[in-house]
Amino acid sequence: MNVNRIVNMIIRRVVGKLINRGVDAGIDLAAKRGRSGGGSSTQAMTPEERARASQAKALAKKARKGARITRKLF
User: Fold this and answer.
1) Do residues 44 and 15 lie in contact, with contact meaning Cβ atoms separated by under 8 Å?
2) Whole-prediction pTM value?
3) For the chain, how far is it from start to end, CA to CA, in angstroms?
């Protein structure tokens, strides 16, 4: 193996991890989980809003899982 191939292998792994973090952060932001400043209070929510928020969290979790699987395949 030459040095060029070794460097490419290392760079590919680092870039892959950075992309994974970016995708996860984007999904969290889309699900409003990445909000700073304490987030939303569940006490001010109606029962319907709480149910909708929990469904959004579950959907975001599924999306993150699917994105991870997709990235592993390619």
Assistant:
1) no
2) 0.45
3) 24
Write down the pLDDT at residue 11: 94
Residue with tokens 């209070």: 41
Q: Give the pair of three-digit tokens for residue 2.
A: 């030459």
Structure tokens at 4: 């060029």
Count of CB atoms situated within 10 Å of the CB of 34: 13
Which residues, 6+ apart, have CB-to-CB distance to 26 below 8 Å?
none
Give dist(CA 27, CA 25) in Å, integer: 5
Distance CA 52, CA 70 (A): 27
H runs (alpha helix) in 1-74: 3-30, 47-73
Q: Which stretch of 1-5, 36-40, 65-69 has the lowest confidence by average pLDDT?
A: 36-40
